[in-house]
Design a protein that fits this description.
GO molecular function: acyltransferase activity, transferring groups other than amino-acyl groups
Protein name: N-acetyltransferase
Largest sheet: 13 strands, mixed
Oligomer: single chain
Distance between the termini: 36 Å
Radius of gyration: 20 Å
CATH architecture of the largest domain: 3-Layer(aba) Sandwich
Helix content: 25-40%
Number of strands: 13
Pfam family, one: Acetyltransf_1
InterPro entries: Acyl_CoA_acyltransferase, GNAT_dom
Amino acid sequence: MKIIDRNYQKEQDYDKVLSFLRREYEADPHYPGWKAQRFEDMEYRLNTMYICMGSEPWHSCVHLWEEDGAIVGLCVGERKGENFFYVKRGYKFLYPQMVEWTKNNMFVEEHGRKEHTFWVCDAQRELIDILQSQQFKRSDCDVHLMEHTMTEIQEPTLPEGFRFVYGTEIKDIVLKTNISHWGFNPDQEGVENTACTEANKNRARAPMFDEQFEVMIQDPNGELCSYAYLWVDNDTRSAFVEPVSTRGKYRKCGLGKAMLLAVLRRCKENGVTRAYVEPYDVWREEFYASAGFKTYGKMGIWTLSEKM
């Protein structure tokens, strides 16, 4: 059958993309591709946040290759210029065409040059060979691909007077968003980020969203200290961590790890057999390793700068 490529259209393609990612995951849990949860997080949360910040909708950053109406290749990125490539097993011959399409359509123009950025798993050896042949260079920063097999999860411990609370108990999206945002941005403590708030309001509409997998910690005075959420896909019985955040004044006392362990145990009670996370630096990798995650692969960032 002839293979065609076309732009993504949410109404007709959203479920098809999730099915494609789920099939490849079920065939190989270490399949070098986005999990279905990450795609849904992008569609419902991050896309909303970027639009609120003045960016174009992300749908132009998703491109499909199909054979007889079924997806066999996928190019996806959070924003233009950030490109990830995934193919169905047996379709690696599509890589050259996918790279060419992306170079022509997904570059960022800066100072009269085309800037290309591709995120490629080390397991995608054939794709790396193509990029090297075209003079792409790998940056020093790697993303660590980590999983938790859920066989043994430590008992979480909290300082005296602190306690876990869940999204089923705290419904205030603005409050929960603030706690998460302030953890990532201590310099903005006390200021609401409206883009993040709108993004999380839309996340609550996502089919996979389940507030029982939102976990927070309260201090003895009832103030929220930290926030974590795990996207649970019941179809694959897997979870994806996004995000984990602790406010600056509560760091260095084990709250982040305890919170992560608590929500992992809740996931396991609900049938989850594997959890995934993609930290992008060493200290985050060490943090997740302390909670039982193990690295199974890496993703490199490959760049090329060309004259217009």
